[in-house]
Here is the input.
Amino acid sequence: MTSVLYSVEEGVATIMLDRPEVRNALNGVMCDALCEAAAKAAADTRVRLVLVRGNGPVFCAGADVKERQGMGKEQVRERRLKGFAAYAALEALPMPAIAVVQGAALGSGVEIAAACDFIVALPDAVFGTPEALRGTVGATQRLPRVLGKRLAKDLMFTGRRLSAAEAMALGFVSRISQNVEDEIAEMAKAIFAAPPEALRLAKRCIDRGVELDPQGALELELQAIDEQLASGQWMGKS
Here is the structure.
């Protein structure tokens, strides 16, 4: 039985979480499959855009807690490392990656969505990180970087869930659409019209630059400019 579906059509790779019978709960097998799918997309020169989606009415309800039954400490730690690897693989994709979220994105679901470049949500989407309330530790790093530590603590300590509208107002969700396929098609059209190397370099500068001081970030952008100039692909329009 598969846990992740991977397909490529007209330059768009779709990574589909495929455990709808358990609300796409993340287990170790799915972690490995996400790493494999991300590696395929990254290595495929046809792929210009990656969509991360969930099969069924829920994007991802979090980690599969049933998987933990009978696990020892080392097994639990190893499983968490698999999760970290999966999120990092999505985050490291060189081309734009969009999470398309419907229903609940909780815990690991928030991590997967946050690892993408941005989120397009259906109106029914909700986001939460209830790990601490469930007696575990997780989802403590990406959300505070977007929402700030106080709101991230509110979600973590109280079980508060953000609606799609709240998440958009706070900058976690980029767009909300009832006609999500049309929305994605318009976004893909814009992305496909741009030089792919320019998008890759811009993504690298943004992702790495936010972790640097202003001078280091500026040097990173200059390095990207030099790379593009050396490639002969500079458009000279800005």
Remarks:
- Residues 73-91 form the longest helix (19 residues).
- The chain has a mean pLDDT of 94.
